[in-house]
Backbone:
């Protein structure tokens, strides 16, 4: 039958369904088969021919017909899974039912009265009336649907290659089939790479789209503060009830990590044949991150010890979380598996950067946000993977793309979520000493970026990009400043030699953050000054020898430190500073920072196109909730500093420990006026001013400034290279205060970030699924859809 005819018949069936006020019997096959038996409609057709208004009308006016449609469609999928879908007709029925359910499910989720429908049992409709025992018949519809999808994803000649030579054999028996032999792609735990098959990829994609739609019930619930609410669809699908959990987890992970958008390594190859793999890879990445949506703060994570060889999963650990996907992810442990995953993710994240060398030479992928969520989950749930990433300079292949995305998105309101996840990943990495050490590797890759040209290390790149975000990003990024500077503090004790460009950028930030109008205009702003001083102290105390550029920059900007030491705290001075705030606030931008020319070939970071859709995000926890303080002891091990120990100011404790009390006090000391306007008081200023950790820098200036001035007078010098040479050979041994212990603020899992990740991830999935637009114009509750 021609496709025009089949569309017509399908549309006729839809109209009948919406106009029938009487319930249609479930046994009326002649009626129900019109929806899936004789039609060849694409998923786009289904979306066009089943308008939203009509689905809602059936839901309101003839609910029993909508219920029957759903359960008949599920029944067909179950039958297909049971029989193994040998004929073309059966395959077509499965695809049609799958598309129809993808269309209808969001409208069931958006109505609270319908939400329990799929979890209720349909009398007598358990297993396609095959007279199974009663328990099996009592399966909720959701479970039957999920198990059928899982079976169909490993269905020979439909979604996987058949292993049988002869078609005379009744093809592989679906029930005895070991799906671990049918994993979709080589990689973790599987060595054989099956022949690519376009049709199988398309069929997998349709089923994964339906699976993702099942999981999307989460979008229709408002963000709950206690993110302990598990998604029942994900919970069941990732449980031992699903016999394909392991091969499906492995198939999804390997499909993503093995994907090479270049097209077999030959530039421009993707132009020769359309790449049908990418949509499958995207869908796989989205399903994977949703199955891994699991609050690690509230659950026991498997420990890191014990390795066994021979299996991809580490069996020596305690059982770990119920969610098998999280469990499997946390137990991957073989070096070659880690290498495969890391190389794959780095290759895909670097893809948008390659575009800038040879424009259009490779297919530009769009799913970097999903990849960043996946990378985050890997590091968060599998500590061995995190240590592997940091063991070699391969971590820089993740760092550079993240810095590229951060710099590129800094002016774009629709990409605030991307900025956050990039910064969260760097915060997580910066809690490990090895990350700081790796940053000393020279940066030679020249990805065109809209930043000043510099010669130096990856640490310089990080500082220059962070400076650019802070001084020329948009207002909504201000909550990230604490995180950005915490990362700088965490890596500072390990930075062997900052370039002059990076040193000047750090001092420019200090200059901008220590103006009185900025310090007094919000309760938390002085934290930023504390972070920068702590970073300078770490470098001076632990890496003085290689850092003559920074020491020189500190000497040149010494007035900033003197002003901080003499910060006025009397009411008239505070009042005067705040008067300046009444005028439009000065942006932190170019003032006093010599902006060199940007790199060749780079484009300025652009704001979002007007009308761009974005999804709202929940607020992220403050830096004190996001991180936990640890002290590095002599042998390099970390000792957690519990809040109790921060109360006593033992001598030798870093000055930044003490502001904790001050910050707790500040609410008491400052008054918030009726208008909600922040009003700093003298007591408040003094409470933290006295704790500014300036001793080390003041001592350094006291010793070095007279010597530098003497050189300039003696040699009539204005040439900085001579001064730098003097500083390189200088030493402050015995002249500085006793080095303070190194303090690291490590990311700690918490419910706040778990909720943030959930809203961010679903927002990305909502916006990226436009063809067909699965969730558009449905009543989602997890976030708001806004236009820029």
Residues:
């Amino acid at each position: 039958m021609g496709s025009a005819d089949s569309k017509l018949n399908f549309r006729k069936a839809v109209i009948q369904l919406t106009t029938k006020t009487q319930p249609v019997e479930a046994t009326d096959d002649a009626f129900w088969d019109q929806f899936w038996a004789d039609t060849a409609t694409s998923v786009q057709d289904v979306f066009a021919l089943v308008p939203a208004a009509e689905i809602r009308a059936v839901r309101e006016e003839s609910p029993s017909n909508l219920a029957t449609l759903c359960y008949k469609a599920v029944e067909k999928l179950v039958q297909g899974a049971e029989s193994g879908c040998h004929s073309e007709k059966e395959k077509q029925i499965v695809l049609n039912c799958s598309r129809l359910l993808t269309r209808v499910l969001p409208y069931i989720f958006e109505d609270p009265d319908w939400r329990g429908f799929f979890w209720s049992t349909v009398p007598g409709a358990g297993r396609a009336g095959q007279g199974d025992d009663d328990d099996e018949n009592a399966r909720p519809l959701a479970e039957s649907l999920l198990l059928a999808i899982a079976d169909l994803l490993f269905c020979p000649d439909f979604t996987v290659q058949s292993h049988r030579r002869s078609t005379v054999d009744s093809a592989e028996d679906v029930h005895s089939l070991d799906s671990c032999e049918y994993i979709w792609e080589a990689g973790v735990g599987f060595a054989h790479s099956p022949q690519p098959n376009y049709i199988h990829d398309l069929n997998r994609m349709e089923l994964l789209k339906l699976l993702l739609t099942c999981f999307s019930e989460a979008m229709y619930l408002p963000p709950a503060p206690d993110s302990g609410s598990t998604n029942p669809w994900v919970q069941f699908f990732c449980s031992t009830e699903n016999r394909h959990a392991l091969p499906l987890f492995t198939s999804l992970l390997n499909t993503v990590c093995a994907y090479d958008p270049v097209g077999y390594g030959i530039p421009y190859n993707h132009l020769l044949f359309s790449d049908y793999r990418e949509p499958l890879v995207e869908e796989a990445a989205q399903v994977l991150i949703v199955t891994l949506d699991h609050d690690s703060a509230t659950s026991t994570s498997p420990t890191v010890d014990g390795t066994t060889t021979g299996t991809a999963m580490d069996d020596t650990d305690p059982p770990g979380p119920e969610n098998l996907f999280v469990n499997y992810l946390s137990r991957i442990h073989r070096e070659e598996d880690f290498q495969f995953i890391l190389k794959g993710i780095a290759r895909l994240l670097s893809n948008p950067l390659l575009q800038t060398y040879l424009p259009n030479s490779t297919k530009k992928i769009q799913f970097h946000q999903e990849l960043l969520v996946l990378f985050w989950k890997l590091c968060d749930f599998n500590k061995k993977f995190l240590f592997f990433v940091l063991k070699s300079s391969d971590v820089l292949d993740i760092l550079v793309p993240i810095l590229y995305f951060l710099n590129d998105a800094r002016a774009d309101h629709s990409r605030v979520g991307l900025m956050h996840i990039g910064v969260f990943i760097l915060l997580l990495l910066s809690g490990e000493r090895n990350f700081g050490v790796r940053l000393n590797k020279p940066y030679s890759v020249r990805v065109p970026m809209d930043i000043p040209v510099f010669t130096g290390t990856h640490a310089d790149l990080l500082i220059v990009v962070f400076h650019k975000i802070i001084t020329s990003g948009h207002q909504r990024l201000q909550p990230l400043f604490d995180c950005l500077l915490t990362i700088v503090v965490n890596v500072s004790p390990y930075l062997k030699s900052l370039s002059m460009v990076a040193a000047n950028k750090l001092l420019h930030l200090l200059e901008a953050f220590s103006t009185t109008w900025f310090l007094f205009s919000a309760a938390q702003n002085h934290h930023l000054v504390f972070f920068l001083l702590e970073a300078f102290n770490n470098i001076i105390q632990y890496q003085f020898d290689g850092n003559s550029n920074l020491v020189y920059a500190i000497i040149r900007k010494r007035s900033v430190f003197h002003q901080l030491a003499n910060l006025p705290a009397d009411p008239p001075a505070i009042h005067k500073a705040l008067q300046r705030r009444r005028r439009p606030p000065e942006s932190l931008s170019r003032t006093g920072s010599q902006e060199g020319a940007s790199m060749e070939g780079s484009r300025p970071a652009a704001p979002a196109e007007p009308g761009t859709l974005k999804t709202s995000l929940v607020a992220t926890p403050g830096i004190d909730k996001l991180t936990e303080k640890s002290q590095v002891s002599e042998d390099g091990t970390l000792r957690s500093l519990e809040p109790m120990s921060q109360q006593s100011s033992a001598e030798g404790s870093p000055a930044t420990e003490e502001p904790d009390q001050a910050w707790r006090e500040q609410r008491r000391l400052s008054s918030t006026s009726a208008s909600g306007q922040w009003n700093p008081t003298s007591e408040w200023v003094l409470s933290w001013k006295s704790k500014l950790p300036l001793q080390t820098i003041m001592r350094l200036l006291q010793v070095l400034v007279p010597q530098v001035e003497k050189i300039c007078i003696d040699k009539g010098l204005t040439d900085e290279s001579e001064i730098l040479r003097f500083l390189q050979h200088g030493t402050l041994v015995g002249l500085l205060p006793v080095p303070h212990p190194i303090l690291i603020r490590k990311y700690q899992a918490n419910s706040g970030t778990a909720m943030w990740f959930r809203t961010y991830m679903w927002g990305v999935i909502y916006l990226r699924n436009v063809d067909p637009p699965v969730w558009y114009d449905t009543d989602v509750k997890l976030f708001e859809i806004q236009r820029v």
User: Anything to note?
Assistant: Residues 124-133, 300-310, 589-593, 644-658 have pLDDT under 50 and may be disordered. The chain has three domains: 1-123+138-161+198-215, 217-297+321-391, 392-581+606-630+693-760.
